[in-house]
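Work Package 4 report. The design task specified in the project plan requires that, given a folded chain encoded as structure tokens, an amino acid be chosen for each position. We show below one input record used in the internal validation round.
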């Protein structure tokens, strides 16, 4: 009995297995006949009328028609796969177009050789670029970024010397120091090196960003300009250089004292909203027989110096200690106004450093001795660049105006000062962005091939 049951179960299992194999064959392996193409709408109507007469009563006809339709279990999958393939094709096409446009847009490669501290203001403060390594004492530092149609790379440090680094672009920006004679000698060596590369066709174009002389005695660079038979296409120069023409010579901002490692300052909520302890500040050198002596005398009148953070010294000090630098930053952060008397030139680092901390510059608006400015052409000199950009500063012609300025300052409430700080910080951010874009546009306009026939 048990043997019979065992045989019956085995037979049923075998039958089930055979049926499963047949079902699998039917569904997955049997060749599928492609569906007949459907005729146009009007042909289908005509065929339906003709078949109705041949097939009999409506009920039977409907049943047969349904039964005769070729059921395709893969039809939905095929449609989905076709749609997915079309989407992949369109996505790939978009990616190719984007890559092609990206290559077309990145049509200029510029290498910046930073051989003056002002190059750090260009790269880190105006371009917002980073450098590796971060150590400011490193012998070699570099960075890169894409902007507009241009890919920029930046090199700086004592190890960057002529002939001992890779020239990786056909277009070069040289950042040089021409403030004094010893610096001019070094700058001249770099210019001659660049000239050799141009003559050997290793590079095509050269622009110079120059920390100019504070009295604008920059005649030494004129022979290198292309307009005078040289090879330098563009010159960006600090201070109110009389030869600025907005064609191939442009005024460039002095910026912050990057040689003292003045940082890129990110505005904060407290910087904008907190009340500040001091009405004004001045930390600097008092030169003999200068307007700075007048400033100090005025501050001592009526105890105004008690309302401000004042730290005067008799001799300029190029090096900062950690303590003195922190005091200076704290003075900017905790003062509503920063007093900016003229030095050798009207423009000074203090102006831009005050902007970084939202402390409004009060600027002695007088032309200093030398060859700066061209009053017949630029009526807003000195500080032509800042005034053109609508700098929201307080300009005074004489420090005798300061008591009235401070008296007005006392009457301002915190909300009014907050709005003023906001305006100043926004202006400074926009100023740097505008200088960046102008720099890029000027290079691209000069270096890229002209489309004109």
């Amino acid at each position: 009995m048990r043997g019979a049951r065992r045989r019956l179960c085995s037979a049923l299992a075998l039958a089930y297995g055979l049926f499963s194999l047949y079902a699998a064959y039917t569904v997955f392996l049997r060749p599928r006949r492609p569906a007949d193409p459907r005729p146009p709408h009007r042909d289908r109507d005509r065929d339906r009328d003709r078949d109705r007469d041949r097939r009999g009563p409506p009920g039977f006809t409907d049943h047969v028609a349904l039964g005769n339709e070729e059921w395709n279990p893969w039809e939905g999958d095929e449609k989905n796969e076709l749609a997915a393939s079309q989407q992949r094709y369109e996505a790939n096409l978009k990616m190719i177009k984007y890559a092609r446009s990206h290559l077309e847009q990145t049509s200029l490669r510029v290498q910046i050789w930073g051989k003056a501290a002002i190059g750090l203001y260009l790269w880190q403060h105006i371009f917002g670029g980073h450098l590796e390594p971060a150590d400011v004492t490193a012998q070699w530092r570099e960075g890169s970024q894409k902007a507009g149609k241009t890919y920029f790379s930046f090199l700086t440090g004592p190890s960057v010397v002529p002939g001992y680094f890779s020239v990786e672009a056909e277009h070069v920006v040289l950042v040089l120091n021409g403030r004094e004679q010893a610096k001019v000698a070094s700058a001249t060596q770099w210019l001659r090196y660049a000239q050799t590369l141009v003559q050997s066709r290793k590079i095509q174009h050269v622009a110079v960003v120059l920390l100019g002389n504070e009295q604008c005695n920059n005649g030494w660079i004129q022979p290198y300009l292309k307009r005078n038979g040289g090879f330098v296409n563009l010159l960006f120069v600090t201070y109110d250089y009389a030869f600025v023409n907005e064609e191939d010579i442009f005024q460039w901002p002095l910026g912050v004292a990057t040689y003292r490692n003045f940082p890129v300052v990110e505005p904060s909520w407290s910087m904008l909203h907190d009340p500040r302890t001091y009405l004004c500040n001045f930390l600097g050198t008092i030169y003999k027989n200068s307007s700075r002596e007048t400033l100090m005398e005025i501050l001592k009148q009526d105890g105004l110096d008690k309302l401000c953070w004042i730290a005067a010294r008799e001799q300029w000090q190029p090096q900062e200690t950690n303590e003195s630098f922190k005091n200076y930053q704290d003075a900017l952060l905790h003062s509503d106004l920063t007093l900016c008397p003229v030095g050798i030139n009207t423009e000074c680092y203090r102006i831009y450093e005050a902007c970084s901390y939202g402390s409004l510059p009060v600027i002695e608006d007088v032309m200093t001795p030398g060859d700066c400015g061209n009053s017949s052409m630029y009526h807003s000199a000195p500080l032509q660049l800042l005034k053109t950009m609508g700098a929201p500063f307080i300009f005074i012609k004489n420090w005798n105006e300061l008591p009235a300025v401070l008296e007005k300052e006392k009457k301002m409430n915190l909300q009014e000062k907050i709005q003023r700080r906001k305006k100043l910080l926004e202006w400074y951010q926009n100023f740097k962005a505008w200088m960046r874009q102008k720099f890029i546009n000027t290079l691209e306009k000069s270096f890229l091939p002209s489309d004109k026939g």
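Residues 414-447 form the longest helix (34 residues). Validation will be extended to a larger panel in the next phase.
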